[in-house]
Amino acid sequence: SCFEGCSQLETVQFQDCLIINNNAFKSCSLLKNVQIPKVQTIKNYAFSGTIISTIESNFLTEVGDYAFNEC
Question: What values do phi and psi take at 42, rounded to 5?
């Protein structure tokens, strides 16, 4: 939950990240742009409470429970 509740965060870009952990961006209420081309796993509630409209990832194989809850 390293960025949980960051109310001013709008864009996330990770070039070499493979896993987005539980609650990592939960309640980042302005987060709408996510570019994570190498991510394979998005864990539980990772982007819950954001306004993401699109997500870019080429290797995504696992999405946890409620990862995009309330988007």
Answer: -120, 120
d(CA 3, CA 7): 9
pLDDT digits 0-9 by tens, 16-54: 999 999 999 999 999 999 999 999 999 999 999 999 988
Instruction: For the chain, give the DSSP string.
Output: -TTTT-TT--EEE-SS--EE-TTTTTT-TT--EEE-TT--EE-TTTTTT----EEE-SS--EE-TTTTTT-
Quick check: 1 pLDDT over 90? no
Q: How far apart are CA 68 and CA 62, in angstroms?
A: 13
